[in-house]
Automatic annotation (TrEMBL):
This is Roadblock/LAMTOR2 domain-containing protein. SMART domains: Robl_LC7. InterPro entries: Mycobact_SerProt_Inhib_Rv3364c (IPR053141), Roadblock/LAMTOR2_dom (IPR004942). Residues 9-100 form the Roadblock/LAMTOR2 domain. It comes from the Bacteria.
Length: 135
């Protein structure tokens, strides 16, 4: 159920177990590479990670248009037919994405995601890459 490059299993499982309705959790780099996942299959997690890279870039562009904003995306919530999608900044060049069903409570989800990022955000980072290699 968990595929990862680092030992994120306990971190992601804690979030999954704490909020009913989570279908998949993906930790990704800013350039859309999957770092870890909980739930779902690897191919789906890779597609979600790639899509999140574009979404966080779009959200940051919109944020830069808001007066007094630093232009950084903090969280995106999308309600879709059948569930919710959450994307939150989680550390240097890393993001936390969650897909849930309609029974997941958005307030509880965002609070639990924020708590997770606050507790272990330093571990949820992705080093900058140049030509596909960590710098």
């Amino acid at each position: 159920m968990i595929q990862q490059r680092a030992n994120f299993d306990w971190m992601l499982k804690d979030l999954h177990d704490g909020v009913p309705g989570i279908e998949m959790i993906v930790v990704l780099s800013a350039d859309g590479l999957r770092i870890a996942r909980y739930g779902g299959d690897p191919d789906t997690a890779d597609r979600v990670a790639a899509a999140c890279a574009g979404l966080q870039s779009l959200a940051s562009a919109v944020a830069s248009e808001i007066p007094n904003s630093d232009g950084k995306m903090k969280m995106v919530l999308i309600e879709i037919n059948g569930g919710y999608f959450y994307l939150m900044a989680a550390g240097a060049n890393a993001y936390l994405a969650v897909l849930s069903d309609t029974f997941a409570e958005p307030g509880l989800m965002s609070n639990r995601m924020s708590d997770l990022v606050a507790r272990i955000g330093a571990h949820l980072t992705s080093p900058p890459r140049r030509n596909g290699q960590a710098v």
